[in-house]
Amino acid sequence: MADPGSVLSHAEVEELAPGFVLGALDPEEMAAVREHLASCPLSHPVLETLGAVVPALALAAPDTRPALDLGARIVAAARREAGPVSSPTAVTSTGDDATVRAPLQRPAEPVVRLDVPGRSGRGLAAWLDAFRRPAGAFAAVAVVVVVALVAWDLRLQQQVSDLDAYRTAVAQVLDAAAAPGGQLAVLAGASGDGPSGLAAVTPGGHVAIAMRNLDPTSGTQVYEAWLIAGSEPPLPIGSFAVGSGGTGALNASAQGSTGGSGTVIALTREPGPGATTPTLPILAQGRASAATS
Predict the structure, then answer these.
(1) pLDDT tens per residue across span 1-30
(2) Residue 59 is inside which H or E element, if any?
(3) Quick one: pLDDT at residue 25?
(4) For 36, what's the count of Cα atoms within 13 Å in the CB-facing half-sphere?
């Protein structure tokens, strides 16, 4: 779980979405999520969907209040089950040994009081509250389970969507590389870990990039692509934001010479769009070469 004292990333907010819409997070976490939502320009489909689901579930929960005469009907059923009660007799002795049979006094029946809710606040009202508690607890658990399932389904849909978007971006890169004079570059970090992807450059200056394993951006942050041809300074190509899926794509036209074979394409993370010089470190880079030989 994210540290509530730090600024939450887009992915962390998506993870906390079910607890946020249910109001089940700690106060610090609730405040951190609100702070992120106030400044993040990206959409939050999980929060939006769950925010619409929870009220609908609450309205769909059936009213489990028993009928007001349920207590009286229970008592009446118990009396019928017991059957009629005969009056027993007791034997008393007289002075002349004559026996006299006299009926025993039947003890008074207990009085069953069923208070109406809203009058005394006790009796039947308390009993009905106790009756409602198990069903209410079950409904609450059902809401939590449904919200968790909806969140899981949304994440799965997002993963499939991200994968499809990455495949489309890779296809566009390969198409550009296959064009006459096209060049292909494999982008990777210095250690071989972290972000990786493909890039293509055409003689006309078109650049196509497909990246994966990127950390999500937040606020105004973007990933900027750079083209470095020979000894010329890095040329900004374009920027893109990244969601929780960690994939990104770019199709842009480089304003300037794309150089020949050996042109380097690099990727950095910038605090905002419009950067004119790269912010180190370079996250991934690759040298372009002819796609066909």
Answers:
(1) 445 456 788 888 888 887 777 777 888 888
(2) helix 45-60
(3) 81
(4) 26
